[in-house]
Each structure stands twice: as structure tokens, then as C-alpha cells.
């Protein structure tokens, strides 16, 4: 039996916006593709409700498509526009709130990560900052956004933010990680623009900052805006936006000035240092909090034995040791919230079992299990 961690910091209530979360545990956004024609059904509402009623403090939904024809690359990815989809999301929000949880949508555009001819809009070409693939190669099938189209895209994010507040969500998350559209503007490999949305590292943050600024204008001062970012990309786990803390500050400062409330710092292994030669004790979330003075969400291999898309076990960092590391880091003030993904995906009672010292009873995540999740 796994002993209950006395006073586990992850189980403490913690502020979020003008409210309070029942725990520091955040459900990480995970794409499922269970929303036919982009409309989340009763099964989606039940899926999120189960996690809320079992102690998850904050739920971040799977990525949801903003109102742009090339936003996503699958017909069953949920939309965050249109009367039917928004009405369905309102039902999800109500169910989560009735279960005592809080929930925010992740607003998403995949950019050049989308293949030409992908559903749901097969005739709409993929778009990106410069018509460049995630491998850094020019591709005629990927449309480089004009300056006007970039500004229209910013408005599409702001429209989604306004809808989120209107139908009762507790905040929003902007997906700026993993090589998707916002990240493509941040990354020098994919952003070769010569207008105000390209250039130096801080200038490449302009698109993201303008999205944040436009969303803030729509939702007001007290509605939390979470910004998710990563160094790694889906095509390159060793990619870097920043090679040191100075460069990271140059990227993040425009986002702070624009109005980000919380940074969600995506890593594959939460215990790994980001800039080891500067401070081996700080991961990406720790550095982000130190540089921005903003609350951060840390994430990476909590409750599982392998990092995302890895074929190798986490070695000596067992699930129990990882939880102890995280507990110590939260107490030290390195980060404020901890996102749990696949462990919660496969077992909605994961938080309860942690609280009761019964992690030996959790259902173990396997890739094969994903087809049978509820």
C-alpha cells in the first residue's frame, strides 16, 4: 500500500481568479476526438463531471477549435463556435460546476501541423506564419498568413474567449505549445516574417501577446487567462524557444505585459531541470515563475511510469518518488498547480485514491486503454 503523504500540498485548496480550487491538481488538456461534427455530447459532459466530483481542482478541456476553417485536422475535435457547440459546452460547464469543480476551455489552432486535405474542411489549406513546416522547410501546400489574416486570427481567439465567459467557463487557456499555430509564431524555425509579427525573439511573441490583449479586452480584468507553452515540439523533443533564462524572459515578458495570469509550462518529465548550468533545481515552471512572478502550472509524467510518447520507463523516478518531488517543489514555491494527464485519463478517481493513500489501486495507463475511456 502507498502511504498517504501527510499534508500533501497537492490536495490543498488554492486561489484561482476570484475563486478557489478544491485542490492544486489540474486535469491536463488531452485530445480525444469524441465530439462528432465538433459537438460535445452527453458522454463528454459525463467524462469531465467524473473528474470534477473526484477531487480535480481545475479541468482544462481538450483542445477546442477556434472559428477558422483550418483550425483542426479531425471532424470529431470539438468546436468552440456555433450555437450547437456552445450550447453543448454550456451543459459541460453546468455539470462540472454542480460536481464542485472549475473548468476552462483550451482554445486551439494547429497551424502547419495540419496536413492539406484534412477534415473537417478538406478544401481549406493549412496556415502558418511563413508557409514553413515544423521541419523548417518551405511547403507550397501551407499558406503563409497575410498581415490582415493574422489580425483576423487574433479576433477569432478573442471571440472564443468572449463566448467562454458568456456560457459560464471559469477562464480560458490559450494553446501556445507543442508546435501549433501560436508556437509557430514564437519559434524561429517556423517564423521568418518581416512584419511586426516576426523578427527578434521578443517580436516573435507579438502574435501571442496580441491574442492575450484581445482576449483580455473581451473578458475583463478578473477572468483568468492561462497561457500554455513548451520548449519541445511534436516533431522535435529537443527543440528550444530559449537556451537560457535571459532568452526565456524575452519571450515571456510581452505576454505578462499583455495580461497572462498563469503560465502552463509543458514538459515531458516534471523533475528535469530546464537550464541546468544556471540552476539545476528549477524546471520550466520554476524558471517561468521566477522570471514573471506569475503563478505557474507544472506538468510531466505525474502518476505514470513513462513520459509522453516514450518507449522507456522513467527509471529510478518512480510514481511515488515523483509525487514526493512535486510535493517538495510546491512547498518550496517553485510552482503553484500541478497538471495530471494520462493518470486521470484512465482513472477518474485518481485524486481520491491519492488522498486515501490507495495509489496501488489506480488503473494503470496504457495506450490500448484509450479506446475504452469514460
Q: Give me the strand/helix succession.
A: EEEHEHEEEHEHHHEHEHEHEHH
* Tally of separate helices: 11
Share in β-strands: 15-25%
Number of strands: 12
Radius of gyration: 19 Å
Question: What is the strand arrangement across the widest sheet?
Answer: 3-4-5-8-9-10-11-12
Output mean pLDDT: 93
Distance between the termini: 26 Å
The helix/strand class is alpha/beta
Largest sheet: 8 strands, parallel, barrel
Percentage of residues assigned to helices: 25-40%
Q: Which segments are poorly predicted (pLDDT under 50) over 5 or more consecutive residues?
A: none
Please give a structural write-up.
The mean pLDDT is 93. By secondary structure, the chain is an alpha/beta fold. The chain is built from eleven helices and twelve strands. Strand 4, helix 2 and strand 5 (102-108) form a beta-alpha-beta unit. The chain is 32% helix and 15% strand. It is globular, with a radius of gyration of 19 Å. The longest helix is centred in the middle third of the chain and has 20 residues, at 147-166. An eight-stranded parallel beta barrel has the order 3-4-5-8-9-10-11-12, surrounded by five helices. The chain has a two-stranded antiparallel sheet with strand order 1-2. Strands 6-7 form a two-stranded parallel ribbon. Helix 3 (147-166) runs parallel beside helix 6 (206-219) and helix 7 (245-258) packs across helix 8.
SSE order and pairing:
Elements: E1 14-16, E2 19-21, E3 25-27, H1 42-53, E4 58-65, H2 83-98, E5 102-108, E6 127-128, E7 143-144, H3 147-166, E8 172-178, H4 181-186, H5 201-204, H6 206-219, E9 225-233, H7 245-258, E10 262-266, H8 284-292, E11 296-299, H9 319-332, E12 337-340, H10 342-346, H11 350-355
Parallel strand pairs: 3-4, 3-12, 4-5, 5-8, 6-7, 8-9, 9-10, 10-11, 11-12
Antiparallel strand pairs: 1-2
